[in-house]
Amino acid sequence: MLSRTAANLFWLSRYVERAENMARLMEMGHRMAMMPAAGQGYRSEWQSVLAAAGFSPTDYIPLAQAEVADYLVFDPANPSSVSNCLEQARNNARAMRTAITADMWDAINSAHMELKKPALRYMVRNNLPEFLDWVKRQGALFRGATDSTVLRNDGYDFLRLGTFLERADNTARLLDVKYYVLLPETSVVGDSRDSYQWTTVLRAVSALRAFHWVYKDNYTPLLIADFLILNPLSPRSLTHCYAGITDHLQRLARHYGRRSSAAAEALETYSILLHGDMEDIFSAGLHDFLSDFLVRNAALSSSIAESYYFGGQ
Amino acid sequence: MMSDDKVREPYQALVEWMEATGPEQLAQKREEAETLFRKIGITFAVYGDGGDPERLIPFDLIPRIFTAAEWRLLKRGVEQRARALNAFLFDVYHNAEIIKAGVIPGELVFNNAAFEPSVIGIDPPGKVYSHIIGVDIVRVSENEFYVLEDNCRTPSGVSYMLENREIMMRMFPELFSQLRIEPVDSYPESLLKTLKSIAPKGCGGDPCIVVLTPGAMNSAYYEHSFLADQMGVELVEGQDLFVENGHVYMRTTRGPARVDVIYRRIDDAYLDPLCFRPDSVLGVPGLMNVYRAGNVAICSAPGAGVADDKAVYTYVPSMIRFYLGEEPILNNVPTYQCAKPDDLQYVLAHLSELVVKEVHGSGGYGMLVGPAASREEIDAYAGRIRANPGEFIAQPTLSLSSCPTFVQSGIAPRHVDLRPFCLVGDKIRLTPGGLTRVALKEGSLVVNSSQGGGVKDTWIMAE
């Protein structure tokens, strides 16, 4: 497969996943903002959402939900806005129509066309949850089309690598919102607002019920973090994502008869997660753990690009 | 379709069906078709008008129909031209017998901008220089066809031939089960066979074939990706290829992979910055050396454009007689060459009756349609011709046949032309069908998509 095609596939699925996760992040902000003001920690829930999405608070300080939503959904100056993600995804898809199926193209192209309609802009302003559902649905459509139509060759591996890397990044950021909301962390742990916010994290990843099935217990920060970081059953957990990443890197190694340095790096991170203990992580500091993870995850992305000559050889 | 205001026989069933369907439902079908085109992403960018870079070409629901007998005639005529044009190309890059014999003036060939000295003496497999020839044909009466031009470089539009059919079959399945229409979907397979057949001898095993595109910004990008997809070969850009040790390689996730056949959709001038335009970022440095060494096949061969020049076109009937010893089956439109003093004089005196084209022009740009032009336009154009007579040719406006077309006011006749696609490799392959282009403006003779023309499906009825 052409290196350029592999890079395009990898980033195509990353952008689709990023658009969906941007919606999940916003859903979380939307729910948190409905609670009485925290009065401590970050200035507002929406700002913590922006901080978790990777924006420095000095970049842009929108206050009202409508403004933040516009910024996160439509702003062309925001490289991770939903519309920019979908635009990028479509550009990538168009640049390698030969490597994706008609169903995948249809999913991404239809999303792109619909997003341009005034009805959706209206929805962002007046019915944000409905809009966020729409975005999540586009992600589901694309993954569904991928899952049911694409050849199980190396292209599939690059698509899935993009999805898992981006999802791991986003789950870590989503959890980190809690950190930004609740500075200083320890003072309010256990109060009703705190547990509301923790369950909001679960809601954002559509995992409220799954949590019960797994733990059969009350929501506690420790269990919720465990579910999203270490539990391999959770499809958005870091461990699950890394199981996928190592699996697809191994498939590529078999396919090409050559192990990459990326595979070794991924295994190292995977093993940290497999042997991790949630109590240790909490006592050492959740935010530090997540920050370290984000750095590792970004480094892995670069290694994959190098191993498969994304920039040419 | 309508000669003497009668519906020609092959259209009978179609017209009955259209009448039964009614204009409202047809209008609705047309909207459906447009949505489908947009959805699939079949677009055609028009340069330089600041317009939509992903514009749709208007699609007309009413197909153009040829009987089996009509097609037999066209097929023989097109294949005859394809043979003669390739014989000509091989000849001018070797012994130039046709020039020595005084049939074609040498300066027309050797001073031609498309003549490529770097390929003189090269023997491509099967002696074929032009592998895909799109011949533009108009009909002027029942059994009289004229060729407007031969496109020997990289004729585009074949994806429309295929997608138009897909969409028609999706929307009017009952028509296809009722009538016996020749399928066109074998084209990509024929193209792949043709490309395989021109692989360099040394490649061994299954040749590695790629489609070389200038990229997603090119007006015909959809077609490039469509064809690569249909053939199951890589769609590459110049940046994906490089030359090493006398071979062309593409950059893949496994490392370099050797390439044997390049179906290029970029112009000669951009193919190799070391050989042609040094500023080209679309091409592959060193590609021409590999080509000359016989280690890669390029389709169409560099230099093939010398045969589709509008001035050279006037000599195609002579080529057919010279190389094949046959009489031309399809007529040329009588053409005045402004380079000739007598012709020039005639053209300048009759501009209001003629169509004047730039010799190297394409896509309907820069032409004068005399009967439709104002006095000022004609005067201005006359000035351009006088300044550079050699750059222009002129043709009478033909009484083109028209075809029923679905327009704002209902169904009305509009002028059409036809571009069948002829593949030349180890043998000649012609798919029964082609791209019918239609001038959507009433009375207009210009069918080019860049000038607001539309497209139709083309039906060849089975025997």
UniProtKB/TrEMBL annotation, chain A:
It comes from the Bacteria. It holds the Pfam family Alpha-E. Transmembrane segments: none annotated. InterPro entries: ATP-dep_Glu-Cys_Ligase-2, DUF403. Residues 1-308 form the DUF403 domain. This is Putative alpha-E superfamily protein. It comes from Gallaecimonas pentaromativorans.
Automatic annotation (TrEMBL), chain B:
Residues 63-439 form the Circularly permuted ATP-grasp type domain. It comes from the Bacteria. SUPFAM superfamilies: Glutathione synthetase ATP-binding domain-like. It holds the Pfam family CP_ATPgrasp_2. This is Putative circularly permuted ATP-grasp superfamily protein. It comes from Gallaecimonas pentaromativorans.
